[in-house]
Amino acid sequence: MAEHNELGKKGEKIAVDYLLEKGFQIIERNYRFQKAEVDIIAKKDDLLIAIEVKTRSSIEFGDPQDFVSPKKIKLLVSAIDHYVIEKNLDVEVRFDIIAIVIKNNKENLEHIEDAFLHF
Q1: Pairing, β 25-33 against β 36-44
Q2: What CATH number corresponds to the domain at position 104?
Q3: Predicted confidence (pLDDT) per residue in 19-40, tens digit
Q4: Which of 45, 46, 71, 99 would suit a FRET pair with 59, their CA atoms being 20 to 30 Å apart?
């Protein structure tokens, strides 16, 4: 597997561990709909939360969250809309980003709630 894929998998595991520690319930991982993939779908309180995990080994070219493009946002929204309809859910949805930088075996994690409001 390519090195960036390994880094991504490691980042997703760090994100899941963090979310569980913070009291989130993990509902789905790597949910796919058409061309979209939602890294983590979680529940906390009465919210359904779609979480995009971005992991980098450096911030030389920008923070991890800077790599969530408008196209990616559109795909994620479409996927969650489909998920809610498919599961017949009546819930409020929030979109978060977990940005992780792993450098020299040190992890720096930033959890951005309601992330798409900032774009």
Answers
A1: antiparallel
A2: 3.40.1350.10
A3: 999 999 999 999 999 999 999 9
A4: 71
